[in-house]
Amino acid sequence: MAIVSAVQGREILDSRGRPTIQAACVLSDGTAAAASVPSGASTGAAEAHELRDGDSARYRGLGCRKAAAAISGEICAALAGRDFASQDALDEVLIGLDGTPNKSRLGANSILAVSVAFARARAAAAGEPLYQAFARMLPAAPHVLPRLTINLFSGGKHAGGQVAIQDVLMIPLRTQSMDATLAAAHEIYEAAAELILARFGMRRLRADEGGLAPPANSTREMIELAAEAIAKAGFTPGVDVALGVDVASSHFFREGRYHLDGEVLDSAGMIDRLAQWTEAYPIVSVEDGLAEDDWDHWPALRERIQNRSIVLGDDLLCTNPARISRAIESAACNALLLKVNQIGTLTEAASAYRLARSAGWKIVLSVRSGETEDAWAADLAVGWGADQFKNGSITQAERTAKYNRLLEIETQTGWPVRPF
């Protein structure tokens, strides 16, 4: 049981210099904890609503004072003095208090900040690590660390749009520890930086998530660069280190066609293109290969590439149980990109997780492009037994905070990294 004394909201800045929310939760025994929430750039249409101020004279309308005030005011009034036996009990009150299907009244950003702050306060009061508190929500018995999918190159909305797709990621396959995984990623990142300097004369300009953003002429060239960087770093592509692609197709899908690398493709043509990439390169993960509303063609994509790559839904699913159920019924994909802020509370995200697992799907827990130095997502990836953790590149404090937390957990537990 945990009695909430007070919650308080505060507007802070995310890694892009845009406002986001931090919530503090104080329990009746004096335990206090805070949590900060992220914000995405590449957002699905079905995501829960972020409450923004809309004042164009301040942060171009992106301010979060309303969300902070909702926490300190209405949410605090609803929670203060109440005894909550579980995370579910608190989240149920938050969901009911908002009263809308997509958190549009109080904002998913304010609701999630309180949800995570309460989880952290309860863990602190119990004297246990946060990942163990998260594990009890499923329930789960964590014993491994997630395998990392690490941003190497960025385009799309995360960079300058020099190529249409959003990210090319490196996935170390053989490393058995977090330490070895990050060391390998560092070697590949450095090799990639040297390659793009030699080829394009480009210094280390970074995209939203810390990845490099070379001025490649096509998606294929960017993928080839990534494979070349792996080899230059002394690893064998497809054996030691594989690739993932975050296609983010919704952002170049217009009037039923995909506008990619100067070509206009229908859905069948886009599936052919993705299949060609997975056949030619060691790509083991394809995220949002088709647009979020192109439901009719997702099953064909899965059938075409599932023997070589997981078919990962992000914008398609938005961590939303209703959309996940539809994807399961239609065999649209076989993996969920789980972003808690897409749905609004830990409890709802756990429901999405359980649903995906019931279908035998892989779970990739992901952070967002606009992050903070708060590392709770690393604990969540461990506590919920995610197969993979997508945290951006190996640069920038909002990314390294999560990696450093995983290194800390590894030191404390001795747990290995999950086999791929």
Q: Let me know the average pLDDT.
A: 95
- Globally, the shape reads globular
- How much helix is in the residues? 25-40%
Strand fraction: 15-25%
Largest sheet: 8 strands, mixed, barrel
Secondary-structure-derived class: alpha/beta
Which stretches are low in confidence, meaning pLDDT under 50 for 5 or more residues running? none
* Number of extended strands: 15
Radius of gyration: 21 Å
Tell me the distance between the termini.
38 Å
Strand order of the largest sheet: 5-6-7-11-12-13-14-15
Number of helices: 12
Order of helices and strands: EEEHEHHHEEHHEEEEHEHEHEHEHEH
Structure keywords:
8-stranded mixed β-barrel; alpha/beta; 420 residues; 38% helix; 4-stranded antiparallel β-sheet; globular
Structure overview:
The chain has helices spanning 65-79, 87-98, 108-126, 130-135, 178-200, 219-232, 267-280, 298-305, 321-330, 346-358, 376-383, 397-413, and strands spanning 2-13, 19-27, 32-36, 83-84, 147-154, 167-172, 241-246, 253-254, 257-260, 263-265, 283-287, 310-313, 335-338, 362-366, 388-390. By secondary structure, the chain is α/β, with parallel strands linked by helices. Strand 2 and strand 3 form a beta hairpin. The longest helix is centred in the middle third of the chain and has 23 residues, at 178-200. The two termini are 38 Å apart.
